[in-house]
Design goal:
By secondary structure, the chain is mostly helical. Helices cover 65% and strands 0% of the residues.
Length: 285
């Protein structure tokens, strides 16, 4: 930390077009913590979006709960990077005073604001957010729907599973990707049939995450479709996910199929099969 920090000079360096200079100044301001707090908060209203989002990042790193109100205001900034860092800062602080204002902003006209508020509410893990977030699952903006799904998964309340299931055929691939993961995290077996169906999705990460979730749910009824995926899916990462899931399910009926696929051309698949067989009590020589 400088002996006599020139805070204004450091703030001016945030305006520099050289990203290295920007970042070095930002790091020094972070190290100053409370000494620079007032000036950094003022920077949230700077005319340059670059400076505003750097100030939001600095505040997220400092983590002082006295800046909640300025960060809430920054959630409505026209610059999406400012919004994202403000949301991150609020979520990491975890101060419950921010929860209701974040919920109120879920109805904002700006889709970026709704998206970032949803993400922040997921970080808070406050059950008050479940109902208002669930209402946004039908939002017209795919980015909002995707963020809401992620937040609901992090909140961990299985009461939303039925609503998430309705979105497993969403036209946006990121919504489907995040739903296929969230359904496993939430741990409700009613999701098993739609996850099995999602193993056929055209998007590889939907297939991979659906396999992961079926493994987490220990869905024995998914063994046959997972074996089919292990044998036939063109994507090695997806085949790897199928092997991992079969290992987690823990049913000996998968053993012969796993052994038969040890000739797979992808090393990642072979490694996953090895781990799966060890889980099932059959080490590979």
């Amino acid at each position: 930390m400088p002996n006599s920090p020139d805070i204004q000079a450091l703030l001016s360096q945030l305006e520099d077009p050289d990203t290295n200079i920007q970042q070095m100044a930002a790091i020094q301001l972070i190290e100053l913590e409370g000494l620079a707090l007032a000036e950094v908060v003022s920077g949230l209203k700077h005319h340059m979006g670059q400076v505003r989002y750097l100030c939001a990042w600095i505040l997220s790193e400092i983590g002082d709960d006295t800046v909640i109100d300025p960060l809430l205001s920054a959630l409505k900034d026209e610059n999406s990077q400012v919004q994202e860092w403000a949301a991150k800062a609020l979520g990491e602080m975890g101060d419950s005073r921010a929860v209701q204002p974040l919920i109120d902003l879920l109805s904002d006209d700006n889709s970026n604001t709704r998206r970032n508020c949803a993400l922040a509410l997921g970080w808070f893990k406050d059950q008050r957010a479940i109902v208002p977030l669930t209402r946004l699952l039908t939002d017209a903006d795919a980015g909002v729907r995707s963020s809401v799904v992620m937040a609901l998964g992090e909140l961990g309340d299985a009461s939303v599973v039925a609503e998430l299931i309705k979105l497993t055929s969403d036209k946006d691939e990121w919504v489907r990707i995040r739903i296929s993961r969230a359904l496993g995290i939430l741990g409700d077996v009613q999701a098993i049939p739609v996850l099995i169906e999602s193993l056929k999705d055209r998007q590889e990460w939907v297939r991979y995450n659906s396999a992961w979730s079926l493994g987490i749910l220990r869905a024995t009824e998914a063994i046959k479709p997972l074996v089919r995926m292990l044998n036939l899916d063109p994507n090695p990462n997806v085949r790897r996910g199928a092997a991992e899931a079969l290992g987690r399910i823990g049913d000996d009926n998968a053993v012969e199929h796993l052994i038969a696929c040890l000739t797979d051309e992808a090393d990642m698949v072979i490694e996953a099969i090895d781990v799966a067989l060890q889980r099932l009590g059959y080490g590979v020589e």
